[in-house]
Design brief:
471 residues; 17 helices; 35% helix; 7-stranded parallel beta sheet; alpha/beta
Length: 471
């Protein structure tokens, strides 16, 4: 089925065309029509199957612009996944002019509270920070019509069950609820049966791992592991490689060892600041680094193109963690490899995996050094992601006046639309902060607006306007 066949608004169809989406995945075909009819769903689908788009499109299609408070809430387990989901909503909603607010920990609660005073059609949040906003009464969820739980099993694994139960107590009973994950262990299954007994189950993919994934398992004791990793890096043709470890200390140590060899490596773990974590991910996405050494924070839901190799330097502590780690490669029908290093003390989880998949066997260690390490010392040429394509015709302007100068969205719309050749259709999302404001100018008209606003007044005052720094 083609996206053009869906009954979506012209604005959403334009965004999909700009981002070069053409054919729906199986899970999108199953989910989108059901969500558009407001059906409650519990969806199990393998990683990389297009779940985010499957729920984002129906949510955006059904937004009512007459409602001032959030109409849809997406709850995710990690800040990195929240950022990725927000990015998807921002790019899909670019011509709809919808506002999407991310609420995550380790970011300013004060700034989030101020942003929530403005219109937010969709909120994407981690459980702890969302519950804090609910307790502080800084978010109004009384008009919520759709709830999505993404990666539900990971929220349970991270201990968020009680938090989720408290959040559900504050939400309207009359709402659509959809839950998505690649795995549904028994505790998650029981929770779904208790809280969403009438939801329809969709289990489109019977296999939890894609056919195009190649898996290898080697028994390597810890003292020999680093040397074996270096050999592995020369055995496979690597675009991007994620090396998973179980501790923050090892993530830091291994990153330093690889960087000492001049390999383009970054780390991702819980001791970093949120800005450092987002920056590490962005460098990896952009190809500035080729190897990402990560704790399990990177195992869930992250969608990064051309990750050709996953290395479990430490074998994961649960079967679900293994499934999600290796799910970072072989996505959307592309080939990928997962190499797991096991020592004699880590056989329990591997044996559980073998019970599910008898083809998983311990192999004799063997590496054929075919590819020079020098390749991993060179950055990749930056490849535009789908979300980047959506913003190619968009210029974000920073206007150095905000709430402190009593600037309102209508003031900016009036000033911009007074420019010859500019209409409402050329204005995207507007965000008013305390001392500055941001506005997206669409349809490649950003430089015209920038030049003209710097020659004009807003509310009878000359105000400086610049192109906003890209984050």
């Amino acid at each position: 089925m083609q996206f053009s066949q869906l009954e979506l608004s012209q604005s959403l169809q334009k965004a999909l065309q700009t981002m070069k989406y053409e054919t729906l995945t199986m899970i999108q075909e199953a989910v989108i029509p059901s969500m558009l009819t407001k059906e409650d769903l519990i969806v199990r689908s393998m990683t990389g199957s297009g779940k985010t788009l499957a729920y984002a499109l129906p949510i955006l299609q059904q937004i009512s612009f007459d409602v001032q408070t959030p109409q849809a809430l997406v709850i995710v387990p990690t800040r990195e996944l929240a950022q990725q989901v927000t990015r998807t909503f921002d790019s899909l909603g670019i011509y709809l002019h919808t506002h999407h607010q991310m609420l995550v920990g380790k970011q300013s609660f004060h700034f989030q509270r101020e942003d929530l005073k403005q219109r937010a059609h969709v909120v994407i949040a981690t459980p702890g920070r969302l519950l804090q906003h609910i307790h502080e009464r800084t978010i109004d969820l009384s008009k919520l019509s759709t709830l999505v739980l993404d990666e539900a099993d990971e929220m349970f694994h991270l201990g968020f069950r009680q938090t989720l139960e408290k959040i559900l107590d504050h939400l309207p009973h009359e709402r659509q609820t959809c839950c998505f994950s690649a795995t549904f262990p028994s505790d998650v299954h029981q929770f779904m049966d208790a809280y969403f007994p009438h939801a329809r189950w969709i289990q489109q993919d019977q296999d939890e791992m894609p056919d195009q994934l190649t898996q290898h398992f080697f028994l390597i004791e810890k003292e020999h592991r680093f040397a074996f990793l270096i050999n592995l890096l020369q055995t496979y043709p690597i675009k991007r490689c994620i090396v998973f470890v179980n501790t923050i200390e090892l993530a830091q140590q291994l990153t330093e060892q690889l960087q000492a060899m001049q390999l383009l490596t970054s780390a991702l773990h819980g001791k970093q600041t949120q800005e450092e974590r987002f920056a590490s991910l962005q460098e990896f996405r952009d190809g500035k680094t080729r190897i990402l050494v990560a704790s399990n924070v990177a195992a869930r839901g992250l969608d990064i193109d051309d990750v050709s190799l996953i290395v479990n330097y430490d074998f994961p502590l649960t079967l679900q963690a293994y499934i999600h780690r290796v799910g970072r490669t072989a996505r959307m029908h592309k080939d990928g490899s997962a190499i797991s290093l096991i020592d004699s003390k880590q056989m329990d989880i591997f044996q559980q995996l073998c019970q599910r998949d008898p083809s998983c066997i311990i192999e004799s260690p063997a590496c054929t050094k075919t590819y020079p390490l020098d390749d991993l010392q060179k950055p990749l040429e930056k490849k535009l992601q789908r979300e980047d394509l959506a913003y190619q015709q968009v210029t974000k302007l920073c206007i150095f006046a905000g709430k402190s100068k009593k600037i309102r969205p209508g003031d900016l719309v009036g000033a911009i639309c007074s420019i010859e050749g500019i209409t409402n259709e050329d204005i995207g999302v507007i965000k008013i902060q305390e001392h500055q404001s941001y506005v997206d100018i669409l349809n490649e008209k950003g430089m015209i607006v920038l030049e003209q606003l710097n020659r004009r007044t807003i509310k009878n005052k000359r105000i400086r306007v610049e192109i906003a720094n890209k984050k």
